[in-house]
Amino acid sequence: MNRPPDARIITPLPFLTLGPAVTTPAPNALYESSLKSLPLLSRGKVRDNYAVGDDKLLIVTTDRLSAFDVIMGEPIPGKGRVLNQMANFWFDKLAHVVPNHLTGVAPETVVSADEAGQVAGRAVVVKRLKPILVEAVVRGYLAGSGWKDYQATGAVCGVKLPAGLQNAQQLPEPIFTPAAKAELGEHDENISFDDMVSRIGRELAEQIRDISIRLYKEAAAYAATRGIIIADTKFEFGLDDEGRLHLMDEALTADSSRFWPADSYAVGSNPPSFDKQFVRDWLETQPWGKTPPAPKLPDEVVEKTAAKYREALERLTGQQLA
After folding, report:
1. Residue 50 and residue 41: Cα distance in Å, rounded?
2. CB-based contact 151:166 (threshold 8 Å)
3. Which residues pair with 126 in a beta bridge?
4. Which segments of the protein form a coiled coil according to its record (predicted)?
5. Is pTM beyond 0.85 here?
6. 142: closest CA among 177, 194, 187?
7. What burial class does residue 48 get, using C-beta atoms within 10 Å of its C-beta: 0-12 exposed, 13-18 middle, 19+ buried?
8. How far apart are CA 271 and CA 265, in angstroms?
9. What is the C-alpha separation between 44 and 28, in angstroms, rounded?
10. How far is it, in rounded angstroms, from Cα 305 to Cα 259?
11. Angle CA(201)–CA(135)–CA(221) in degrees, nearest 5?
């Protein structure tokens, strides 16, 4: 995928160096959390991870946005809350398929009172799992890097497809195309299923593949009733101390998935998607080498991107941003 964790225990990771945030961030936007009541373990492109004892984590979803593996200097107001609310919606809806990392512990109860504003609506307390360092990508449509791969090879990530397919066309059946999790700032590497088997073992690889395709199919069927096409998505999994598989990180959000409005879908061209594509398109017009620092995003681009994320939440879930 364009954008839209062999297993180990999550331990303190090298911190991602963030670019300078805007000097006057938008109201209610959170570019970077600054909790003092819990040990900070790591910062990713979007999420800040804190230790809650030895067996749990607090994950704070900020309003940071990355494009072309570079973090923008401006937050997208409300984006983190949208992602958090959307992921929680899917975790609940798909809990019958596979357990997930949520604990049900209220984030406000694990931080100090004066820090509650940093976690309200945008954080979750989760089980500390052993991440599987393979991303589980499921593609139901030919799009993005998959379309480019198909044009060049007649396959997507080594999965042979029928001849004559067009851009944005629905595939006969969803395909599973795993990717090796890369270090922060690097591109994930598409790998074959056999490579995945060699990394984590056949039984676990087949379990992840089968569960991922089921998750995608159930989510796509629901989304269709809401007028949304889920073109592709990625899942991440981890194991608990008993070796049970859990869905973790985020699920079916506008950052991990390609959402298209069904009413503007047509085979042959990509519909406008409900995600950061608006930012990516603007960046493509700029004289920029796709390395830090990123150009300053205009207010209009920030506002329209924030609106796209909110629209995705409302159309998919029927919920307003809480």
Report:
1. 5
2. no
3. 57, 102
4. none
5. yes
6. 177
7. buried
8. 6
9. 20
10. 14
11. 110
- In residues, how long is the chain? 322
**In whole angstroms, what is the distance from residue 266 CA to residue 268 CA?**
6
Amino acid at the residue 312: A
Q: Give the position of tokens 């090796």.
A: 180
Amino acid residing at 114: D
**Six token digits for residue 24:** 């006057």
Strand-pair category, 134-141 with 170-176: antiparallel
CATH number of 40-128: 3.30.200.20
Nearest-5° Cα angle at 37, 35 to 38: 80
Task: Determine the angle formed by the axes of helices 79-93 and 299-317, rounding to 10 degrees.
Answer: 20
User: Could you read off the pLDDT of 95-138 as tens digits, one per residue?
Assistant: 999 999 999 999 999 999 999 999 999 999 999 999 999 999 99
56 torsion bin: left (phi>0), alpha (psi -120 to 50), beta (else) = beta
CA distance linking residue 135 with residue 238, whole number of Å: 11
Q: CB 216: neighbour CB atoms within 10 A?
A: 25
**Cβ 2 vs Cβ 145: under 8 Å:** yes
Domain boundaries, the chain: 40-128, 131-275
How large is the average pLDDT for residues 217-241? 98
**Domain 131-275 homologous superfamily, CATH:** ATP-grasp fold, B domain (3.30.470.20)
